[in-house]
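Honest question from a wet-lab person: if I give you the sequences of every part of a complex, can you actually get the arrangement of the whole thing, not just the pieces? Trying it with mine:
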Amino acid sequence: MSNQYNEEELDDVVDLKSGVIGRLFKSLKPYWLLILISVLGIALVSFLDAYYTVLSKRIIDEGIVAKNLPVMISLFRSYILVILAQVAGFFIMIYIIGLLGEQLRYDFRKKLFHRLQTLSLSYFSKTPLGWIMSRVTSDTEKMADLLTWGVLDTVWAVTNICFAVYFMLKLSPRLTMIVAVSLVVMIFVSFKFRVKIYHHYRLSRRANSKMTASLNENITGVRVVKALRREAQNLLDFKILSTDMYQESYRAVFLSAIYLPTIQTISAISLVLILWRGGLQVAGGAISVGVLQAFVSYIMMILWPIQDLARVYAEMQNAVASSERVFSLLDMQPEIRNRENLLPVDSLVGDVEFENVSFHYEDDEPVIKNLSFHIPQGKNVALVGTTGGGKTTIVNLLCRFYEPSQGVIRIAGHDYTRYSLEDIQSRIGVVLQVPHLFSGSVRDNLRYGRLNATDEQIEHAAKLAGAHEFIMGLEKAYDQDVGEGGNLLSVGQKQLISIARALLAEPDIFIMDEATSSVDTLTEALIQKGMHNLMSGRTSFIIAHRLSTIKSADIIMVIDDGQIIEQGNHESLMRKKGHYYNLYTKQFRQDLESKYDPFADKESEALAA
Amino acid sequence: MNETKGPYIPLDMPEVLGSKNKLLSLWHLMRGYHFHYLVSTIFLSLAAFARTGMYIYLGNFIDRMMVGKLVGQELTLGALTFGALIALQALSSFMSSWMANFTAENSTRRLRDHLFDHIQRLSYSYHSESKTGDLLDRATSDVDTLRRFFADQAIGVGRIVMIFIISFIAIARINLRLALVSIIIFPIVLVISLIFFKRLSKAYEAYQAQGAILSTDLQENLSGVRVVKAFARQEYEIEKFDKENREKLRLGKKFNWMHALFWPLSDIICSAQSVGSNFYAAMMVLNGGITLGDFISFHGLLGWLIWPIRNLGRLIIDTSRALVSYGRIAVVLQAPEEDMTGCTYQPEEGIRGQICFDKVSFAYEKDQLVLDDVSFSCQAGMVVALLGSTGSGKTSLVNLLPRFYDVTSGQILLDGVNLNAYSRDFLRSQIGVVEQEPFLFSCSIRDNITYGVHREVSQEEIENAAREAAIHDVILSFKNGYDTLVGERGVTLSGGQKQRLAIARTLLINPRILILDDSTSSVDMETEVQIRAALESLMTDRTTFIIAHRIQSIMNADLILVFDKGKIVQMGGHEELLSQPGIYKDIYDIQARIDSALKEEIDRVESI
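Yes, you can. This is the full assembly:
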């Protein structure tokens, strides 16, 4: 797998491209009013934060030092008002921003899911599932965080610093100069620190995921570990990973521990200067004690907005990288798309025809080579041949999961690219080799075939498919939960359900990939019955492994190396004594061996009899 | 330094697990770092002192300035003292947080290593009964909760208490009544924050749980993408996802609402206290109770008295979470490890491989015998074939040999000595296992072949083993040859290929006893012949137990054991078993029946 899909992308030194950032901020457009309110709210809060100090100064100078009780009381009254206003602003801001964050997460996830539903199978076969999952789960979080708390913290920090500087300038321009110099130094140091801390933090995240993967593997493969006595060596290997994790994590926390005291020391230096210079001025009567106290307060307060600003800056790199990945997924165009001027169609009843069809995945060698055949409506086709010969690809092409690289596929007389994807896929019923069920009840899974089916129709389909009996045997019958991916059921049971599901959809063309894994005899008989019901009267293509399926087919195609090497019915092909003959006799032996196996599940045999 | 134990003092597990109190257990987990923790606490107090001193000095500074005493050098000195106090405070808080994090990171790393080792040394039965995801969760996210506890909460309690006490004393020294007035809200804020944080963490857990549901949904949709497309159910899926997505939005809004409510609410209460105390103090200045400098000291100190209380609730909730996590980890830690090196019998000349089962019974759970009174014996170098249906006891029998499990009753003798006298470690070094579809690790093919070969192996030796196992050519067909990675980031190998890699590995290990799961389902004829040859060269000169699925591998066996429901129903050589009626003869006769059936079918076709 290429590095493109490495979980913790690290070296994404994003030159904060205006394109991505611009697009990111465009997601805020529908919520501009909320944004405006919260930005105003935050500006108010941060103004009041800075104003406190002015009030305290006035309380000291005009109230306490001047010994003026009425003024002091009225000042305290405004103090209370300021607090109330600030708390109200604070509440509105947290509430709105939090709300907006959730809404944005929801929007991003929804959009991504939408896009994923339209993408072609080829996309999913070359993209690891975990990679897609991270885009939808963690990247959307990071984007929303940047757009909400990131913006909020930035606005707060910038306005807070501005207001503080403004008030300081009003109190004493000369002392402000001292603060301004240390402010610049602190901002510079903060940004340097934060970026470094964040870098190590991400390295530790990456080390952590490696460590978890190793642990996971060791638990899954614990039997091998024990049999081969690898415990000691494995512990040494693990220690290398845990040491990595330790070192990165330790570096991050060490830098964090040193960071705050460092900027505190810088502020201490400027404080000394202010007390000294300011003290001289107070003594000289140029400024009041309150002013001095106000400067002390400001310089100690200003640490917080600087820290916030630096943090947002460090995390922004990562959030922008997240956005870039998310946007690239959103921009992904499905390879298989509806064409223009679609042919409206009610049914796909008709002949199926391949004309000089060739196909290759990605840039590989051709998998299907100049394939042509014509299947009249209603015939049953069995595809046989060795693994990797191209049978599955033919089925994928028929379902239009992929389209031919060359040549034409015609259904009911027209090039099938003239139909819409929805029309084709809803008129073709597919039963996969390893059937996939969704978590939920048996009934939910059957209804997947036709969403508006009544319970009676569902049971009818289940009966036709031969699934009804075993379903009734389940504890909760049709309401039984099938587990994640249907894992609470056996493969045979899953296949019965997927046949019933396909029957319910009443497709015009039926496609099935028979299971190779052994299914007990009873279930096997039921599956055959269900298949028979599905195939009757419908054009069907079966990737066949069972002799009975192959023998009863109207047309047998032996596929090898992307081509048809033999075609005909069972008898004619047997007489030829060619590829089919060899395949058949081998299969025949295997079937009978398993049939006569004295160790086979006797219980189900008894039931089948 | 002991290499396998790592660069740290080992944990004293009996001490950790033996503690009655979970907090005490956590304390023992910090073993070796108690000193660092103590230093951290001392510096923390020092930082609090320095900060308090700073405010008091500021008040003093201003008082002296007001009466005009502070001029010239004295002013410079005063400013410098003030700066020194800040610097001291900065340095102390750095030391404190450095030491706390040092303790946390080291304790956690040691716990991680210990857990990793412990998990891989847990018994076979423990692993069969537990879920991978659950174990993984305990070893990762629960451990991380403990790391945060060591770094934040363990030191955080000290921090809040110290800051509170020192600030309180400092204010009380200015004026006791003022100090008492200033902590009126203490119980109220504590109670409110406890209630809120409890609810907040509940709401947050619900939100997280919904996130997990959403992820599962997404994963199912993505892995079932063929079905979705086959039924053209995109719209339906979008709606389904949207339903859960909306639920997450709803829970997120709920969490957000509580969040937005708590902070302003506690702000109002704390601010009320702040305004009230400040007013009270200001009045005292006017009445001459305290000086202006006192007021300014108090003004600065008050914040440090009030605001930490707000976080006390969160601290308590987080600590209780850490205790829950520790409980989950302790359950794993308490499970006994396999004794690998006890029972030290270890013949110097190695073992020969003569095995005798004497009335062996075995049950995973009480009263459910999987092996029932099994007796047989075989000479060194013999091939023993085990036949029987799934669940008849074949696998359980071979699992007893490397002592993955121990017999319930009866005994197994290896070279005439009870198996339980051998250490597990020694036994496993003498027994090779080749499974039907062996588990491979996500490292290179070379590393997989040498996995568990406890010596240096040359490339030539590896290639020879691979040739003998009929996998060399397959390996060379990959772009990176022996360096090709196996698994998600590399090549996917078929079951047969994996088996042959395991055969190559076992050839290098060269064990005296071999356990083979002989199933070559879903491989083509040519490969089957190759695997057969590879297996045969592997079996030479070794006592071999084959879990047999086909007649070919049985025919050459020296001893055939036919199992049914945990009992041996037939036993003997091929000829012997063939001469008596029973399951074995039935199986053998099948071949003849198949041949005649096939001929019948061909004749039928020909006649049409």
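Two things worth pointing out. The two ends of chain B are 84 Å apart (CA to CA). Confidence is low (pLDDT under 50) at residues 1-5 of chain B.
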